[in-house]
Amino acid sequence: MIRSALLSLALASFLSAQDPTCPHQVIQTVTVPAETGPWVDCATPTIIVNGVNISQGQKGCPEWVLIVPPVDVPVVLPGSNTRTVLSRRDPIQKVPFVCKTRFFLFLPIFQSCDPGAPVVLGLVDRLRIVACEAGGK
Predict the structure, then answer these.
(1) Is the Cβ–Cβ distance between 30 and 68 less than 8 Å?
(2) CB 133: neighbour CB atoms within 10 A?
(3) I need a surface site. Which of 25, 32, 34, 55 has the fewest CB within 10 A?
């Protein structure tokens, strides 16, 4: 057991010594659950924003929903001979909601939780993996 661990360590050291400027990175993606503001009374049982179910078993309407896209984190993996580069930037959005009541004459007949225009609060870098070039570039 110890012998195989030492052999693996020696192999990893040898591979990283081949190109000392290659960071040997891979990507670990971390998902961030949507967060909601305070809930107001509303008869809507299910709220879906960008394909994400926000209702969390509550009956009502959140004042807002914060949507954070998955976050890519570079992680060192010895011997991978790869590095991470920026692929795109995805928005962090805050979506306001309003509980609207529909009336027939003066009688309330239906309530819905309607999303407003999303506000972009920031951007999350999304990464991709590329092979290290000869010479470590």
Answers:
(1) no
(2) 12
(3) 32
Q: What does the pLDDT average to over 106-113?
A: 73
Q: Are 132 and 22 in contact (CB under 8 A)?
A: yes
Report CA-CA distances (Å) from 61 to 3, 57, 105, 111.
Answer: 60, 11, 24, 10
Q: Which residues pair with 65 in a beta bridge?
A: 36, 95
pTM equals: 0.63
Question: What is residue 66's DSSP assignment?
Answer: E
**d(C-alpha 86, C-alpha 128), whole Å:** 6
Residue 116 pLDDT class (50, 70, 90 cuts): very high
Give the residue among 79, 108, 82, 109 at the shortest CA–CA distance from 17.
79
C-alpha–C-alpha distance, residues 58 and 97, integer Å = 15
| Mean pLDDT across 40-58 | 61
**Residue 123 to residue 135: CA distance in whole angstroms:** 32
104 pLDDT band, cuts 50/70/90, is confident
**Mean pLDDT value across residues 22-35:** 91
